[in-house]
Amino acid sequence: MVSVKDLVGTMDGKISREIFVDKDLYEREKERVFARAWLYVGHESQVKKPGDFFVSRMGEESVILTRDNAGKIRVFLNTCRHRGMRVCRYDQGNTKAFYCPYHGWSYGLDGKLTHVQAYEASYTPPFPKDEWALVEVPKLANLQGTIWANWDSAAPTFEDYLGDALAGLDSGLRAWDGSDHGVELLGPPQKWIVPSNWKFVSENFSGDVLHGVSHRSVEMVGIGPGASKSRRDSPGERILTTFPGGHGFYYGVMPIDQPRSDYAAAPAVAAYFQDCWQRRVQRMGPSAGVMPTLGTVFPNMSFHAQQPRTILVSHPRGPNETEMWRVYFVDKAAPPEVRTWLRRYYMRYSGPGGLTEQDDMENWTYASEASRGTIARRHAYNYMSGLNTGGVSDPVIPGMVTREPLTSEQNPRMLYRRWAEFMDAESWSALQP
């Protein structure tokens, strides 16, 4: 089996196009990346009450995020243990049990097998039902309401998996006033399919500071929350941060006495966020102004922590197709007027109909197409920006830091280095630092 590290030149900045299109590599990804990495599966606000469920994905596999009668959040593989039919065929809702429509096997909210047709008459001796429960994901974690899952019992804790990236992600997922578990999702996810490899999406949000040229037309129109010609909040001082775990964040650091945006077109919205910001400063002190603008948690969860506040998961559907799921989050305490305003802003910014996402999708699609040609695949991609500058440690910002005016592709290089480590490693013991 070829060493994937030979295809990812993190030292010389040359990365093979094969990693975006090769079918055998994709099959190995399913086993070695998505069956071992921590994956985002949903938000606690989607399963508020016992019996609430949300059908999510881990790699290509359907899973059920639910809350059982004891209030415990669980994640199950969405397949009957009898013949494999889905036991939950609705995207979201509330139920007392999960029922297979094929042969009638039923499961409780705790995953236990509760009913089998003609159980005592047809099975002699009756098989032990407790051995035929739904397949449950063994490791779960909750960070500021986001739910993460991992199939590999040998994997490290989610906190160790994030490492120094934990502080930034925690800050970015808090309510705007800095309170714990203070946000909820604003409606169900948007879902759409892009003819692209999922890794292009992940690297885009890990800190690709050079692709702003793609959004020049949007900048000229001006769709940001303020009155200026922009796409989003003023990011402040631009800082890239790189982490050994393959995560990459892009920070916008501003003085704590400087508002993030003027919201000039909506005075009530401006007043709400100004009040929230004051409370954030009181709660968090100088660190209130240190929060990522956007980033990627390896392998496929990307986010905007400032306006627009959103989570994007790029679910693989083969080497040349990705199913995008985007959700938006808002403060639980936000009044209706603020929620309505943010919903409209989010919709014009992101998603399949959003002005910026359309630019991105075109880039990802053509980048994938350009990787498939027989001749094209002989020529590596250039990831050499910032190759010899590297990052430096910072007393405030976690990770290895690169500050503007320097630019760097260190974040994508580190993402692909970690991807290659996952692909080559036989087990988690070989992945530990």
Structure, explained:
With 433 residues, this protein is of the alpha+beta class. It folds into 2 domains: 39-131, Rieske [2Fe-2S] iron-sulphur domain (Rieske Iron-sulfur Protein), CATH 2.102.10; 157-430, Alpha-Beta Complex (Naphthalene 1,2-dioxygenase Alpha Subunit, Chain A, domain 1), CATH 3.90.380. It has helices at 18-21, 23-32, 119-122, 158-162, 165-173, 198-207, 216-221, 267-284, 336-349, 355-369, 410-424; strands at 8-9, 14-15, 39-43, 52-58, 61-67, 73-77, 92-94, 98-99, 106-107, 113-115, 139-143, 146-150, 183-185, 190-194, 237-242, 248-253, 292-297, 301-304, 310-316, 322-331, 381-382, 400-403. The strands form 5 sheets. Strands 13, 14, 15, 16, 17, 18, 19, 20 and 22 form a 9-stranded antiparallel sheet that branches. The chain has a 4-stranded antiparallel sheet with strand order 6-5-4-7, with no helix packed on it. It has a 3-stranded antiparallel sheet with strand order 1-2-21, with helices on one face. It is globular and about 75 Å long.
* CATH class term of the largest domain: Alpha Beta
What does the average pLDDT come to?
90
Can you say what the CATH homologous superfamily of the largest domain is? Naphthalene 1,2-dioxygenase Alpha Subunit, Chain A, domain 1
What is the overall silhouette?
A: globular
Strand content: 15-25%
From the alpha carbons, calculate the radius of gyration and give it in angstroms: 22 Å
Which fold name is given in CATH as the topology of the largest domain? Answer: Naphthalene 1,2-dioxygenase Alpha Subunit, Chain A, domain 1
Name the poorly predicted regions. none
Secondary-structure arrangement, i.e. CATH architecture of the largest domain: Alpha-Beta Complex
Q: What is the overall number of helices?
A: 11
Structural class: alpha+beta
Instruction: Note the main sheet.
Output: 9 strands, antiparallel
